[in-house]
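Pasting as-is:
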Amino acid sequence: MAKKVTAKKKPARVKEKEIEKEIEEEQEPAPAQAADQIGVGSVAEGGAVAAGRGARAYSFKVGNVTLDVRLLPVVVVLVAVIGVLGYFLLRPTHPEKMTGGFNVAIAGFTVVDESGSAVKSDEGSKLSKFIYDRLSAGFAELDLKTVRYELWPPDFTGQIKGKTKEERFVAAEALAGRIDAHVIIYGVVTLAGENSSFAPEFYVNYKGFEQAEEITGQHEMGNPVLVNLPFVAEAIQDVENPAFSARANALSLITIGLAYYSVDDYAEALNYFTQAEATKGWLKNAGKEIVYLLMGNATARQASKDKNTESLTKAYEFYKTALSVNGDYARARVGLAGVLYLIALGDPNDPSLGTVDLTKLDEAAATFQSALTMKDSPESANIETKVHFGVGQIDLVRAQIEGGDWQAKAKVEFEQVVLDFDGGNTRVIDLAGHAHARLGLIALQQGDTATAAQEYKAATGLVTPFYKAYYYTRLGEVYAGASQIDSAIEAYQQAVRIAESSGDETSAEKYGERLAELEAQK
Protein backbone atom coordinates (compact mmCIF):
# COMPACT_ATOMS: atom_id res chain seq x y z
CA MET A 1 0.00 0.00 0.00
CA ALA A 2 1.44 3.34 -0.95
CA LYS A 3 2.39 5.54 1.89
CA LYS A 4 0.48 8.79 2.05
CA VAL A 5 2.73 11.80 1.83
CA THR A 6 1.64 14.87 3.73
CA ALA A 7 3.26 18.27 3.17
CA LYS A 8 4.80 19.70 6.26
CA LYS A 9 3.32 22.94 7.41
CA LYS A 10 5.65 25.88 8.09
CA PRO A 11 5.31 27.52 11.44
CA ALA A 12 2.92 30.45 11.35
CA ARG A 13 5.58 32.90 12.49
CA VAL A 14 7.90 31.96 9.62
CA LYS A 15 5.10 32.46 7.08
CA GLU A 16 4.25 35.91 8.46
CA LYS A 17 7.92 36.96 8.14
CA GLU A 18 7.97 35.88 4.50
CA ILE A 19 4.85 37.94 3.77
CA GLU A 20 6.35 40.98 5.47
CA LYS A 21 9.51 40.54 3.40
CA GLU A 22 7.49 40.44 0.17
CA ILE A 23 5.64 43.61 1.15
CA GLU A 24 8.93 45.36 1.91
CA GLU A 25 10.33 44.30 -1.45
CA GLU A 26 7.25 45.69 -3.24
CA GLN A 27 7.62 49.01 -1.45
CA GLU A 28 11.35 49.41 -2.08
CA PRO A 29 12.26 51.40 -5.19
CA ALA A 30 13.76 49.20 -7.88
CA PRO A 31 17.40 49.80 -8.62
CA ALA A 32 18.39 51.27 -11.92
CA GLN A 33 18.15 48.81 -14.83
CA ALA A 34 16.66 46.17 -12.52
CA ALA A 35 15.52 42.96 -14.17
CA ASP A 36 11.83 43.84 -13.90
CA GLN A 37 12.16 47.45 -15.08
CA ILE A 38 10.37 48.36 -18.31
CA GLY A 39 12.42 50.60 -20.53
CA VAL A 40 11.12 53.61 -22.38
CA GLY A 41 9.25 52.42 -25.50
CA SER A 42 5.79 51.91 -26.95
CA VAL A 43 2.82 51.25 -24.74
CA ALA A 44 2.26 47.93 -26.52
CA GLU A 45 5.86 46.81 -25.91
CA GLY A 46 5.73 47.87 -22.26
CA GLY A 47 2.46 46.10 -21.67
CA ALA A 48 3.77 42.90 -23.24
CA VAL A 49 6.90 42.83 -21.09
CA ALA A 50 4.91 43.57 -17.93
CA ALA A 51 2.48 40.79 -18.66
CA GLY A 52 5.31 38.35 -19.39
CA ARG A 53 7.01 39.06 -16.08
CA GLY A 54 4.05 38.99 -13.75
CA ALA A 55 3.47 42.72 -14.25
CA ARG A 56 5.36 43.72 -11.15
CA ALA A 57 6.33 47.04 -12.67
CA TYR A 58 3.10 48.99 -13.36
CA SER A 59 4.48 52.31 -14.61
CA PHE A 60 7.01 53.68 -17.02
CA LYS A 61 7.98 57.04 -18.48
CA VAL A 62 7.48 58.46 -21.94
CA GLY A 63 9.42 61.69 -21.91
CA ASN A 64 8.30 63.48 -18.76
CA VAL A 65 5.00 61.58 -18.54
CA THR A 66 4.64 58.58 -16.25
CA LEU A 67 2.14 55.98 -17.53
CA ASP A 68 0.50 53.24 -15.51
CA VAL A 69 0.19 50.00 -17.48
CA ARG A 70 -2.78 48.92 -15.40
CA LEU A 71 -4.82 51.77 -16.91
CA LEU A 72 -4.17 50.73 -20.50
CA PRO A 73 -7.44 48.77 -20.97
CA VAL A 74 -9.42 51.79 -19.74
CA VAL A 75 -7.49 54.16 -22.01
CA VAL A 76 -7.97 51.92 -25.03
CA VAL A 77 -11.73 51.68 -24.41
CA LEU A 78 -12.04 55.45 -23.95
CA VAL A 79 -10.14 56.14 -27.17
CA ALA A 80 -12.37 53.70 -29.04
CA VAL A 81 -15.56 55.23 -27.63
CA ILE A 82 -14.41 58.76 -28.41
CA GLY A 83 -13.49 57.65 -31.95
CA VAL A 84 -16.90 56.08 -32.58
CA LEU A 85 -18.75 59.08 -31.13
CA GLY A 86 -16.60 61.43 -33.18
CA TYR A 87 -17.42 59.52 -36.37
CA PHE A 88 -21.17 59.69 -35.81
CA LEU A 89 -21.09 63.33 -34.68
CA LEU A 90 -18.78 64.63 -37.39
CA ARG A 91 -19.70 62.45 -40.39
CA PRO A 92 -21.56 64.24 -43.26
CA THR A 93 -25.33 63.90 -43.05
CA HIS A 94 -28.10 64.54 -45.53
CA PRO A 95 -31.90 64.49 -45.40
CA GLU A 96 -33.72 61.24 -46.00
CA LYS A 97 -36.07 62.80 -48.57
CA MET A 98 -35.77 65.41 -51.28
CA THR A 99 -37.92 68.51 -50.81
CA GLY A 100 -37.67 70.47 -54.06
CA GLY A 101 -40.36 71.07 -56.62
CA PHE A 102 -38.29 69.08 -59.12
CA ASN A 103 -35.89 66.55 -57.63
CA VAL A 104 -33.01 64.91 -59.51
CA ALA A 105 -30.78 62.26 -57.91
CA ILE A 106 -27.54 61.03 -59.49
CA ALA A 107 -26.76 57.45 -58.44
CA GLY A 108 -23.34 55.82 -58.34
CA PHE A 109 -22.82 53.85 -61.54
CA THR A 110 -22.57 50.07 -61.29
CA VAL A 111 -19.27 48.59 -62.54
CA VAL A 112 -19.24 45.14 -64.16
CA ASP A 113 -16.78 42.97 -66.07
CA GLU A 114 -17.34 41.66 -69.60
CA SER A 115 -19.43 38.76 -68.26
CA GLY A 116 -21.77 41.19 -66.51
CA SER A 117 -20.60 40.34 -62.98
CA ALA A 118 -20.25 43.25 -60.56
CA VAL A 119 -16.67 44.20 -59.64
CA LYS A 120 -15.19 46.59 -57.09
CA SER A 121 -13.96 49.73 -58.82
CA ASP A 122 -14.05 53.47 -58.24
CA GLU A 123 -14.55 54.19 -61.96
CA GLY A 124 -18.34 54.22 -61.56
CA SER A 125 -18.07 56.79 -58.77
CA LYS A 126 -15.76 59.02 -60.82
CA LEU A 127 -18.03 58.96 -63.87
CA SER A 128 -21.21 59.62 -61.86
CA LYS A 129 -19.53 62.49 -60.02
CA PHE A 130 -18.52 64.02 -63.36
CA ILE A 131 -22.11 63.91 -64.63
CA TYR A 132 -23.35 65.35 -61.33
CA ASP A 133 -20.93 68.28 -61.65
CA ARG A 134 -21.96 68.83 -65.28
CA LEU A 135 -25.67 68.80 -64.41
CA SER A 136 -25.16 70.97 -61.34
CA ALA A 137 -23.45 73.60 -63.48
CA GLY A 138 -26.27 73.43 -66.02
CA PHE A 139 -28.99 73.95 -63.41
CA ALA A 140 -27.05 76.76 -61.74
CA GLU A 141 -27.17 78.81 -64.94
CA LEU A 142 -30.96 78.62 -65.17
CA ASP A 143 -33.55 81.04 -63.92
CA LEU A 144 -36.10 78.42 -62.88
CA LYS A 145 -38.53 80.73 -61.13
CA THR A 146 -41.41 78.38 -61.84
CA VAL A 147 -39.81 75.36 -60.18
CA ARG A 148 -37.54 74.92 -57.17
CA TYR A 149 -35.13 72.11 -57.97
CA GLU A 150 -33.00 69.90 -55.77
CA LEU A 151 -30.02 67.88 -56.99
CA TRP A 152 -28.46 65.02 -55.04
CA PRO A 153 -24.88 63.78 -55.65
CA PRO A 154 -24.02 60.06 -55.86
CA ASP A 155 -22.87 59.81 -52.23
CA PHE A 156 -26.33 60.98 -51.14
CA THR A 157 -28.26 58.81 -53.57
CA GLY A 158 -26.38 55.51 -53.33
CA GLN A 159 -26.26 52.95 -56.12
CA ILE A 160 -28.87 51.41 -58.40
CA LYS A 161 -28.02 47.72 -58.58
CA GLY A 162 -29.24 44.99 -60.90
CA LYS A 163 -27.88 42.73 -63.61
CA THR A 164 -30.65 43.60 -66.09
CA LYS A 165 -32.43 46.77 -67.14
CA GLU A 166 -35.61 45.44 -65.54
CA GLU A 167 -33.90 44.81 -62.20
CA ARG A 168 -32.36 48.27 -62.23
CA PHE A 169 -35.74 49.80 -63.08
CA VAL A 170 -37.33 48.10 -60.06
CA ALA A 171 -34.51 49.37 -57.84
CA ALA A 172 -34.78 52.91 -59.26
CA GLU A 173 -38.55 52.99 -58.84
CA ALA A 174 -38.27 51.87 -55.21
CA LEU A 175 -35.56 54.43 -54.46
CA ALA A 176 -37.49 57.25 -56.13
CA GLY A 177 -40.45 56.43 -53.91
CA ARG A 178 -38.32 56.47 -50.75
CA ILE A 179 -36.54 59.76 -51.40
CA ASP A 180 -39.25 61.55 -53.44
CA ALA A 181 -37.08 61.91 -56.55
CA HIS A 182 -38.70 62.89 -59.85
CA VAL A 183 -35.74 61.74 -61.94
CA ILE A 184 -32.94 59.29 -61.06
CA ILE A 185 -29.89 59.07 -63.33
CA TYR A 186 -27.88 55.85 -63.20
CA GLY A 187 -26.05 53.46 -65.49
CA VAL A 188 -23.53 50.66 -65.97
CA VAL A 189 -19.78 50.86 -66.60
CA THR A 190 -18.36 47.76 -68.31
CA LEU A 191 -14.64 47.14 -67.85
CA ALA A 192 -13.19 45.72 -71.07
CA GLY A 193 -9.78 47.30 -71.53
CA GLU A 194 -9.73 49.56 -74.57
CA ASN A 195 -13.38 48.69 -75.19
CA SER A 196 -14.64 49.79 -71.76
CA SER A 197 -18.03 51.44 -72.08
CA PHE A 198 -20.76 53.30 -70.23
CA ALA A 199 -24.50 52.77 -70.72
CA PRO A 200 -26.48 55.69 -69.25
CA GLU A 201 -30.07 55.16 -68.05
CA PHE A 202 -32.61 57.27 -66.22
CA TYR A 203 -35.96 56.78 -64.50
CA VAL A 204 -38.83 59.29 -64.51
CA ASN A 205 -41.14 58.91 -61.53
CA TYR A 206 -44.87 58.95 -62.28
CA LYS A 207 -45.26 61.07 -59.12
CA GLY A 208 -44.85 64.61 -60.35
CA PHE A 209 -45.59 63.50 -63.91
CA GLU A 210 -49.02 61.94 -63.26
CA GLN A 211 -50.50 63.76 -66.22
CA ALA A 212 -47.54 62.92 -68.45
CA GLU A 213 -47.58 59.14 -68.47
CA GLU A 214 -46.01 59.21 -71.93
CA ILE A 215 -42.57 59.98 -70.43
CA THR A 216 -42.65 58.15 -67.09
CA GLY A 217 -40.73 54.96 -66.38
CA GLN A 218 -37.28 53.66 -67.32
CA HIS A 219 -35.33 55.06 -70.28
CA GLU A 220 -32.00 54.37 -71.96
CA MET A 221 -29.83 57.22 -73.21
CA GLY A 222 -28.90 55.52 -76.44
CA ASN A 223 -26.31 52.82 -77.07
CA PRO A 224 -23.34 52.29 -74.69
CA VAL A 225 -20.47 54.71 -75.35
CA LEU A 226 -16.74 54.02 -75.19
CA VAL A 227 -14.88 55.58 -72.29
CA ASN A 228 -11.15 55.68 -71.55
CA LEU A 229 -10.31 54.30 -68.12
CA PRO A 230 -8.99 55.16 -65.62
CA PHE A 231 -11.22 58.21 -65.88
CA VAL A 232 -9.59 61.58 -65.20
CA ALA A 233 -12.18 64.27 -64.58
CA GLU A 234 -9.66 67.09 -65.04
CA ALA A 235 -8.85 65.99 -68.60
CA ILE A 236 -10.46 67.67 -71.59
CA GLN A 237 -13.30 65.21 -72.06
CA ASP A 238 -14.21 66.43 -75.56
CA VAL A 239 -10.79 65.11 -76.58
CA GLU A 240 -10.24 62.25 -74.13
CA ASN A 241 -13.80 60.87 -74.12
CA PRO A 242 -15.77 62.61 -76.90
CA ALA A 243 -18.68 60.13 -77.00
CA PHE A 244 -19.06 60.12 -73.21
CA SER A 245 -18.81 63.92 -73.05
CA ALA A 246 -21.50 64.28 -75.71
CA ARG A 247 -23.84 61.92 -73.90
CA ALA A 248 -23.24 63.71 -70.58
CA ASN A 249 -24.11 67.04 -72.20
CA ALA A 250 -27.26 65.61 -73.81
CA LEU A 251 -28.34 63.98 -70.55
CA SER A 252 -27.95 67.29 -68.73
CA LEU A 253 -30.04 69.12 -71.34
CA ILE A 254 -32.75 66.44 -71.31
CA THR A 255 -32.99 66.61 -67.52
CA ILE A 256 -33.40 70.39 -67.61
CA GLY A 257 -36.07 69.93 -70.29
CA LEU A 258 -37.91 67.53 -67.99
CA ALA A 259 -37.87 70.20 -65.28
CA TYR A 260 -39.83 72.52 -67.57
CA TYR A 261 -42.05 69.63 -68.71
CA SER A 262 -43.01 69.02 -65.06
CA VAL A 263 -44.53 72.52 -64.83
CA ASP A 264 -46.30 72.29 -68.22
CA ASP A 265 -43.88 74.67 -69.95
CA TYR A 266 -43.72 72.52 -73.08
CA ALA A 267 -42.22 75.22 -75.28
CA GLU A 268 -39.16 75.60 -73.04
CA ALA A 269 -38.95 71.82 -72.58
CA LEU A 270 -38.87 71.42 -76.36
CA ASN A 271 -36.11 74.03 -76.52
CA TYR A 272 -33.83 71.92 -74.30
CA PHE A 273 -34.77 68.63 -75.96
CA THR A 274 -33.88 70.22 -79.29
CA GLN A 275 -30.50 71.32 -77.92
CA ALA A 276 -29.90 67.77 -76.69
CA GLU A 277 -30.70 66.40 -80.15
CA ALA A 278 -28.18 68.79 -81.67
CA THR A 279 -25.37 67.78 -79.28
CA LYS A 280 -22.16 67.39 -81.26
CA GLY A 281 -20.90 63.83 -81.06
CA TRP A 282 -24.24 62.12 -80.39
CA LEU A 283 -24.95 60.40 -83.68
CA LYS A 284 -28.47 59.61 -84.87
CA ASN A 285 -27.74 55.90 -85.20
CA ALA A 286 -26.31 55.75 -81.67
CA GLY A 287 -29.66 55.19 -80.00
CA LYS A 288 -31.04 58.70 -80.29
CA GLU A 289 -34.71 57.65 -80.32
CA ILE A 290 -35.29 58.85 -76.74
CA VAL A 291 -34.73 62.50 -77.62
CA TYR A 292 -37.05 62.33 -80.67
CA LEU A 293 -39.70 60.74 -78.44
CA LEU A 294 -39.41 63.60 -75.94
CA MET A 295 -39.54 66.19 -78.72
CA GLY A 296 -42.69 64.56 -80.07
CA ASN A 297 -44.26 64.43 -76.61
CA ALA A 298 -43.54 68.08 -75.87
CA THR A 299 -44.83 69.21 -79.26
CA ALA A 300 -48.03 67.15 -78.95
CA ARG A 301 -48.63 68.59 -75.47
CA GLN A 302 -48.08 72.11 -76.76
CA ALA A 303 -50.52 71.45 -79.62
CA SER A 304 -53.24 70.35 -77.20
CA LYS A 305 -52.54 73.34 -74.96
CA ASP A 306 -52.70 75.84 -77.84
CA LYS A 307 -55.33 73.90 -79.86
CA ASN A 308 -52.94 74.11 -82.80
CA THR A 309 -53.09 71.39 -85.46
CA GLU A 310 -49.87 72.61 -87.09
CA SER A 311 -47.88 71.43 -84.05
CA LEU A 312 -49.49 68.00 -84.35
CA THR A 313 -47.86 67.59 -87.75
CA LYS A 314 -44.45 68.39 -86.22
CA ALA A 315 -45.07 65.89 -83.41
CA TYR A 316 -45.98 63.27 -86.01
CA GLU A 317 -42.61 63.78 -87.73
CA PHE A 318 -40.68 63.52 -84.47
CA TYR A 319 -42.33 60.18 -83.66
CA LYS A 320 -41.63 58.91 -87.16
CA THR A 321 -37.97 59.86 -86.77
CA ALA A 322 -37.79 58.00 -83.44
CA LEU A 323 -39.19 54.91 -85.14
CA SER A 324 -36.70 55.24 -87.99
CA VAL A 325 -33.93 54.95 -85.40
CA ASN A 326 -35.60 52.11 -83.50
CA GLY A 327 -38.42 50.36 -85.35
CA ASP A 328 -39.43 48.42 -82.21
CA TYR A 329 -39.79 51.49 -79.99
CA ALA A 330 -43.27 50.96 -78.52
CA ARG A 331 -43.35 54.34 -76.75
CA ALA A 332 -42.93 56.17 -80.05
CA ARG A 333 -45.57 53.96 -81.69
CA VAL A 334 -48.10 54.87 -78.99
CA GLY A 335 -47.16 58.55 -79.33
CA LEU A 336 -47.66 58.37 -83.08
CA ALA A 337 -51.07 56.73 -82.63
CA GLY A 338 -52.11 59.45 -80.19
CA VAL A 339 -51.17 62.19 -82.65
CA LEU A 340 -53.06 60.41 -85.45
CA TYR A 341 -56.12 60.30 -83.18
CA LEU A 342 -55.95 64.05 -82.55
CA ILE A 343 -55.41 64.77 -86.26
CA ALA A 344 -58.43 62.57 -87.06
CA LEU A 345 -60.64 64.67 -84.77
CA GLY A 346 -60.10 67.67 -87.05
CA ASP A 347 -60.46 71.25 -85.86
CA PRO A 348 -59.76 71.30 -82.11
CA ASN A 349 -61.81 74.49 -81.78
CA ASP A 350 -64.91 72.74 -83.18
CA PRO A 351 -66.64 70.78 -80.35
CA SER A 352 -68.83 68.88 -82.80
CA LEU A 353 -67.79 65.65 -84.49
CA GLY A 354 -68.47 66.98 -87.97
CA THR A 355 -64.78 67.33 -88.82
CA VAL A 356 -63.75 63.79 -87.82
CA ASP A 357 -61.70 61.94 -90.44
CA LEU A 358 -62.81 58.30 -90.10
CA THR A 359 -59.95 57.05 -92.29
CA LYS A 360 -57.40 58.71 -89.99
CA LEU A 361 -59.30 57.30 -87.02
CA ASP A 362 -58.88 53.77 -88.45
CA GLU A 363 -55.17 54.46 -88.98
CA ALA A 364 -54.83 55.61 -85.37
CA ALA A 365 -56.54 52.44 -84.08
CA ALA A 366 -54.27 50.22 -86.18
CA THR A 367 -51.18 52.09 -84.98
CA PHE A 368 -52.22 51.63 -81.34
CA GLN A 369 -52.67 47.91 -81.89
CA SER A 370 -49.29 47.58 -83.63
CA ALA A 371 -47.58 48.97 -80.51
CA LEU A 372 -48.46 45.71 -78.75
CA THR A 373 -46.11 43.82 -81.09
CA MET A 374 -43.07 46.04 -80.46
CA LYS A 375 -40.09 44.35 -78.78
CA ASP A 376 -38.77 47.49 -77.10
CA SER A 377 -41.62 47.67 -74.60
CA PRO A 378 -40.41 47.81 -70.98
CA GLU A 379 -42.88 47.15 -68.18
CA SER A 380 -42.55 50.71 -66.93
CA ALA A 381 -43.87 52.04 -70.27
CA ASN A 382 -47.33 50.53 -69.57
CA ILE A 383 -47.87 50.08 -73.30
CA GLU A 384 -50.80 47.68 -73.01
CA THR A 385 -52.73 49.97 -70.67
CA LYS A 386 -52.08 52.97 -72.92
CA VAL A 387 -53.32 51.02 -75.91
CA HIS A 388 -56.54 50.10 -74.09
CA PHE A 389 -57.16 53.76 -73.28
CA GLY A 390 -56.31 55.00 -76.79
CA VAL A 391 -58.51 52.42 -78.50
CA GLY A 392 -61.29 53.19 -76.03
CA GLN A 393 -61.12 56.85 -77.02
CA ILE A 394 -61.42 55.94 -80.68
CA ASP A 395 -64.31 53.53 -80.07
CA LEU A 396 -66.13 56.21 -78.08
CA VAL A 397 -65.87 58.67 -80.99
CA ARG A 398 -67.11 56.00 -83.39
CA ALA A 399 -70.04 55.28 -81.08
CA GLN A 400 -71.10 58.92 -81.20
CA ILE A 401 -70.86 58.99 -85.00
CA GLU A 402 -71.92 55.51 -86.04
CA GLY A 403 -73.74 54.06 -83.04
CA GLY A 404 -73.84 50.26 -83.05
CA ASP A 405 -71.83 48.33 -80.49
CA TRP A 406 -68.91 50.77 -80.41
CA GLN A 407 -70.01 52.11 -77.04
CA ALA A 408 -69.90 48.64 -75.50
CA LYS A 409 -66.44 48.09 -76.98
CA ALA A 410 -65.25 51.41 -75.57
CA LYS A 411 -66.55 50.46 -72.14
CA VAL A 412 -64.56 47.22 -72.19
CA GLU A 413 -61.35 49.11 -73.08
CA PHE A 414 -61.75 51.66 -70.28
CA GLU A 415 -62.61 48.93 -67.78
CA GLN A 416 -59.29 47.25 -68.63
CA VAL A 417 -57.46 50.46 -67.70
CA VAL A 418 -59.26 50.65 -64.36
CA LEU A 419 -58.61 46.95 -63.77
CA ASP A 420 -54.86 47.45 -64.26
CA PHE A 421 -54.80 50.27 -61.70
CA ASP A 422 -56.97 48.40 -59.20
CA GLY A 423 -54.61 45.45 -59.59
CA GLY A 424 -51.79 47.51 -58.08
CA ASN A 425 -50.22 49.33 -61.03
CA THR A 426 -50.13 52.81 -59.48
CA ARG A 427 -48.10 54.11 -62.42
CA VAL A 428 -51.31 54.40 -64.46
CA ILE A 429 -53.20 56.43 -61.85
CA ASP A 430 -53.90 59.35 -64.19
CA LEU A 431 -55.07 57.10 -67.03
CA ALA A 432 -57.34 55.26 -64.57
CA GLY A 433 -58.88 58.56 -63.51
CA HIS A 434 -59.68 59.56 -67.07
CA ALA A 435 -60.98 56.05 -67.78
CA HIS A 436 -63.41 56.39 -64.84
CA ALA A 437 -64.59 59.73 -66.29
CA ARG A 438 -65.28 58.16 -69.68
CA LEU A 439 -67.13 55.29 -68.03
CA GLY A 440 -69.17 57.99 -66.32
CA LEU A 441 -69.96 59.55 -69.69
CA ILE A 442 -71.03 56.18 -71.09
CA ALA A 443 -73.26 55.54 -68.08
CA LEU A 444 -74.82 58.99 -68.47
CA GLN A 445 -75.49 58.35 -72.16
CA GLN A 446 -77.21 55.13 -71.13
CA GLY A 447 -79.40 57.00 -68.60
CA ASP A 448 -77.72 55.44 -65.55
CA THR A 449 -77.17 58.58 -63.43
CA ALA A 450 -76.25 56.67 -60.26
CA THR A 451 -73.35 54.87 -61.99
CA ALA A 452 -72.35 58.06 -63.80
CA ALA A 453 -72.08 59.91 -60.48
CA GLN A 454 -70.09 57.06 -58.98
CA GLU A 455 -67.62 57.01 -61.88
CA TYR A 456 -67.07 60.78 -61.87
CA LYS A 457 -66.47 60.70 -58.10
CA ALA A 458 -63.86 57.99 -58.63
CA ALA A 459 -62.21 60.10 -61.35
CA THR A 460 -61.83 63.15 -59.10
CA GLY A 461 -59.70 61.16 -56.66
CA LEU A 462 -57.10 60.07 -59.24
CA VAL A 463 -56.37 62.98 -61.59
CA THR A 464 -54.42 66.22 -61.37
CA PRO A 465 -56.05 69.43 -59.97
CA PHE A 466 -57.16 70.86 -63.32
CA TYR A 467 -59.09 67.72 -64.27
CA LYS A 468 -60.14 67.15 -60.68
CA ALA A 469 -62.05 70.44 -60.78
CA TYR A 470 -63.37 69.72 -64.29
CA TYR A 471 -64.73 66.30 -63.33
CA TYR A 472 -66.45 67.84 -60.31
CA THR A 473 -68.34 70.06 -62.76
CA ARG A 474 -69.30 66.94 -64.77
CA LEU A 475 -70.53 65.40 -61.53
CA GLY A 476 -72.49 68.57 -60.88
CA GLU A 477 -74.18 68.30 -64.25
CA VAL A 478 -75.14 64.69 -63.54
CA TYR A 479 -76.86 65.83 -60.34
CA ALA A 480 -78.44 68.82 -62.08
CA GLY A 481 -79.86 66.54 -64.78
CA ALA A 482 -81.38 64.38 -62.04
CA SER A 483 -82.88 67.51 -60.35
CA GLN A 484 -80.59 67.05 -57.31
CA ILE A 485 -79.75 70.75 -57.13
CA ASP A 486 -78.18 70.73 -53.66
CA SER A 487 -75.75 68.01 -54.70
CA ALA A 488 -75.03 69.86 -57.96
CA ILE A 489 -74.25 73.05 -56.01
CA GLU A 490 -71.94 71.16 -53.67
CA ALA A 491 -70.04 69.65 -56.60
CA TYR A 492 -69.57 73.04 -58.28
CA GLN A 493 -68.47 74.63 -55.00
CA GLN A 494 -65.77 71.99 -54.77
CA ALA A 495 -64.73 72.69 -58.37
CA VAL A 496 -64.42 76.41 -57.68
CA ARG A 497 -62.35 75.80 -54.53
CA ILE A 498 -59.92 73.53 -56.39
CA ALA A 499 -59.54 75.94 -59.31
CA GLU A 500 -58.90 78.86 -56.96
CA SER A 501 -56.38 76.93 -54.84
CA SER A 502 -54.42 75.93 -57.95
CA GLY A 503 -54.42 79.48 -59.33
CA ASP A 504 -56.63 78.68 -62.33
CA GLU A 505 -58.50 81.99 -62.46
CA THR A 506 -60.18 81.33 -65.81
CA SER A 507 -61.71 78.04 -64.71
CA ALA A 508 -62.67 79.44 -61.31
CA GLU A 509 -64.65 82.25 -62.94
CA LYS A 510 -66.35 79.91 -65.42
CA TYR A 511 -67.31 77.41 -62.75
CA GLY A 512 -68.42 80.23 -60.47
CA GLU A 513 -70.85 81.52 -63.09
CA ARG A 514 -72.48 78.10 -63.43
CA LEU A 515 -72.60 77.80 -59.63
CA ALA A 516 -74.53 81.07 -59.46
CA GLU A 517 -77.05 79.73 -62.00
CA LEU A 518 -77.62 76.60 -59.93
CA GLU A 519 -78.00 78.58 -56.71
CA ALA A 520 -80.61 80.74 -58.45
CA GLN A 521 -82.71 77.62 -59.12
CA LYS A 522 -83.27 76.93 -55.41
